[in-house]
Amino acid sequence: MDTNCIFCKINVGEIPGDFVYRDDDTFVIRDIVPKAPVHLLVIPTVHVERVAELASEEMSIIAAMFRAAKEAVRIEGIVERGYRLIVNQGEEGGQEVPHLHMHVLGGTHLRAMGLG
Ligand code: 5GP
Ligand code: ZN
After folding, report:
1. What is the pLDDT of residue 101?
2. Cα separation values, 56 from 53, 90, 98, Å
3. Does residue 101 have an active-site annotation?
4. Is the CB of 29 under 6 A from ligand 1?
5. What is the pLDDT of residue 25?
6. Beta bridge partners of 102
7. pLDDT at 112 over 90
8. d(CA 21, CA 45)
9. pLDDT value at residue 51
10. Residue 22's pLDDT band (boundaries 50, 70, 90)?
11. Is the CB of 49 inside a 6 Å radius of any atom of ligand 1?
């Protein structure tokens, strides 16, 4: 745990989060500023800033994130309709929270939301 990290604090309950799913390796919460009707954040429990930091033997974290995303979209009922998975990395990638996470955007046609 990084004691200055907002997602680590949400994980341990120091800051409230709207949890959709949790397992041994990940948790999924609703984004506090949703950009689509469904906007989830899939977050590994371990504090890692970026994919580039992961050694090859740690890549199971990535599989765990996709597994959690799969469960979360099933819970949200958007499996068939489709959705978008996004991972912002670093400053030019637009990453604001320095704890690896994957956005799940859906619940409408994203183009209609101006999301390309
Ligand atoms: P990034 O820009 O780092 O890829 O995405 C960070 C996301 O975290 C943003 O979409 C932002 O709205 C969300 N966020 C920031 N602080 C909080 C918070 O305290 N709670 C929740 N649920 N989401 C947050
Ligand atoms: Zn963290």
Report:
1. 98
2. 10, 20, 20
3. yes
4. yes
5. 98
6. 42
7. no
8. 12
9. 97
10. very high
11. no
For residue 109, the one-letter residue type is H
- Give ion ligand 2 contacts, CB < 5 A: 2, 5, 7-8, 47, 99
* CB-CB contact of 43 with 95 (8 Å): no
Look at phi and psi of residue 100 and say left if phi exceeds 0, alpha if psi is from -120 to 50, else beta.
beta
3-state DSSP assignment of residue 76: helix
The structure's pTM equals 0.97
Q: What is the mean pLDDT of the segment spanning 55-82?
A: 97
Using DSSP bridges, classify how beta strands 83-86 and 102-106 pair: parallel, antiparallel or unpaired.
antiparallel
Q: How confident is the model at residue 80 (pLDDT cuts 50, 70, 90)?
A: very high
> Which is it for the CA torsion 65, 87, 19, 112, positive or negative?
negative
104 vs 4: CA distance, rounded Å: 24
